[in-house]
Amino acid sequence: MQSRIKKIVGLFQDFCEDTDGATAVEYGLLVAVLSVALIASYEMIGGSTNSMWSDLSNSFSSAS
């Protein structure tokens, strides 16, 4: 019984000392932040680009 408890405690200590998962979490957070930044920039640029193409279309329509 005691050896089983020592084995479980040892496994728990190994789990607590393992830092491999931390790298995956950091990459996940990095991807999330970049995704939010890309979506925000798309929203900001999208409106002005749409306006630019509408103005261009209107200028061609009025020229003909």
Mean pLDDT: 83
**Number of distinct beta strands:** 0
**Global shape:** rod-shaped
| Low-confidence runs of at least 5 consecutive residues | none
Structural class: mainly alpha
**Between the first and last Cα atoms, what is the distance in angstroms?**
92 Å
The rounded Rg comes to: 28 Å
Strand content: under 5%
Count of individual helical segments: 2
Please give the largest β-sheet: none
H/E series: HH
The helix content is: over 70%
Could you please describe the fold and organization of this structure?
The protein is an all-alpha fold and 64 residues long. It is 94% helix and 0% strand. The protein contains two helices and no strands. The longest helix is centred in the middle third of the chain and has 44 residues, at 20-63. The model has no long low-confidence stretch (mean pLDDT 83).
Short description:
The chain is an all-alpha fold and 64 residues long. The chain has helices at 2-17, 20-63. It starts with a helix and ends with a helix.
Keywords, separated by commas or semicolons:
64 residues; mainly alpha; 2 helices
How are the SSEs ordered, and which strands pair?
Layout: H1 2-17, H2 20-63
